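Dihydrofolate reductase, Microbacterium sorbitolivorans. Tokens?
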Amino acid sequence: MRELTYYVAVSLDGYIAGPGGEFDTFLAAGDHVEPIWSRYRGTAPTQLAEAAGLSVADGPFDTVLMGKNTYAIGLPHLPNPYQHLRQIVFTSTPSQRPEGSDAVEFTTADPTAAARALKQEDGLGIWLCGGGALAASLIEEIDRLVLKINPVVLGAGIPLFGSAGYSPMAWKPTRTQAFESGVILAEHVRA
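Tokens:
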């Protein structure tokens, strides 16, 4: 059975982006980049990875899930951001397809039912790359939680799990690695 991994950058105070979707305060350079990329190869938009000389081949995922706001971050320049992966965008307006997005699957399907069906398919892992609201709706289906914790406090923004409400859920740490850049890679599995 395939696993769903929520792999995302997050601030010290638990935000995956600022109030307007800003993520430019997260570190894109430093001693953490190469080791994290080698572990989670293929988790950058295809064109950006190739421009940086990073191979997207042989990564742990073959499918990426995202909400419409996460997808929209790359528009209009990257309408087909993860060309090397199967891309599924959850949206309430699937008919509004940006030009150049033919390889992207837009769906109004229930995210939980969709994730369960994807887990039954053959293939590599499934990567949930955002956003917070989608993560909140999929929290029961997430098998692994991988956080790139950045040394910044945002104060407000999009929470890691949207507005999931109070519902404690235990996770077991499997690996933690701190870097001189201040980034901490924290990996967990459902307890």
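The beta strands are 4-11, 15-17, 61-67, 86-90, 104-107, 125-130, 144-150, 158-159, 171-178, 184-190.
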